């Protein structure tokens, strides 16, 4: 009970501070997106993410792809398979708009998620916010990860987490899921605070980011 209340209070405070502190960067990123790709929206129109207990939600994220590029990729059998095999990443990624790599490596594109945290869809710290379809496909592809997936779905996904400070996209799906499941079992505000303190270095170093 104490952990849940304390975590929610930390989320609300952190989200408000984050929105105030990073609003200039979010505005600058929005302007960049409209300059280099004026025909599309500022926020990414991406598939739903899996929230606590598997409840789907729309995650706010500044668009870093050309309009319709994700759907075109899914329709291409070769690119679609490369996307799945690469942990739902492409490198190089033909979908990206100019400047997108900076937005992603610096995590500026993820800053609107502070609004998801304020709403209660997400937490400051938690498991990676997986796509709904991603969990279904990976659940079938890696049966050994099923217990990890079941456990990580018992908590809210996070803006940062053990995956962010421990390798990011360099980790395999099973490794990420295991880290997320261990986090869900731990339930420690001090551990949350430690991850928050480690996150700026992980972002600045861009280790494992794509």
Outline the structure in words.
It is a single chain. Helix content is 55%, strand content 5%. Helix 1 runs antiparallel to helix 5 (113-119) and helix 7 packs across helix 9 (173-186). It is built from ten helices and four strands; from the N terminus they run H-E-E-H-H-H-H-E-H-H-E-H-H-H.
Task: Give a summary of the structure in a few sentences.
Helices cover 55% and strands 5% of the residues. It is mainly alpha-helical and 210 residues long. The longest helix is centred in the N-terminal third of the chain and has 35 residues, at 2-36.
Task: Give helix % range.
Answer: 55-70%
Spatial separation of the terminal alpha carbons: 37 Å
Q: Report on the biggest sheet.
A: 2 strands, antiparallel
Number of strands: 4
Which runs of at least 5 residues are low in confidence (pLDDT < 50)? none
Number of domains: 1
* SSE arrangement, N to C: HEEHHHHEHHEHHH
Question: What topology emerges from the helices and strands here?
Answer:
Layout lengths: L1 H35 L12 E2 L5 E2 L11 H7 L1 H9 L14 H6 L7 H7 L3 E3 L6 H10 L4 H7 L5 E3 L1 H4 L7 H14 L2 H17 L5
Parallel strand pairs: 3-4
Antiparallel strand pairs: 1-2
Helix pairs in contact: 1-5, 7-9
């Amino acid at each position: 009970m104490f952990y849940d209340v304390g975590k929610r209070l930390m989320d609300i405070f952190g989200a408000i501070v984050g929105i105030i502190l990073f609003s200039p960067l979010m505005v600058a990123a929005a302007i960049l997106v409209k300059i280099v790709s004026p025909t599309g929206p500022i926020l990414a129109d991406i598939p739903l993410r899996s929230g606590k207990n598997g409840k789907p939600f729309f995650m706010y994220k500044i668009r870093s792809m050309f309009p319709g590029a994700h759907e075109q990729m899914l329709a291409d059998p070769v690119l679609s398979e490369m996307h799945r095999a690469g942990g739902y990443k492409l490198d190089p990624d033909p979908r990206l708009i100019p400047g997108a790599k900076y937005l992603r490596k610096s995590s500026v594109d993820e800053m609107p998620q502070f609004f998801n945290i304020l709403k209660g869809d997400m937490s400051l710290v938690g498991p990676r916010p997986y796509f709904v379809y991603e969990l279904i496909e990976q659940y079938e592809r890696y049966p050994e990860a099923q217990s990890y997936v079941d456990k990580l779905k018992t908590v809210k996904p996070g803006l940062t987490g053990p995956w962010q400070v421990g390798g990011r996209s360099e980790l395999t799906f099973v490794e990420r899921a295991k880290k997320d499941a261990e986090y869900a079992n731990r339930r420690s505000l001090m551990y949350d605070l430690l991850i928050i303190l480690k996150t700026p270095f992980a972002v600045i170093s861009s280790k494992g980011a794509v």
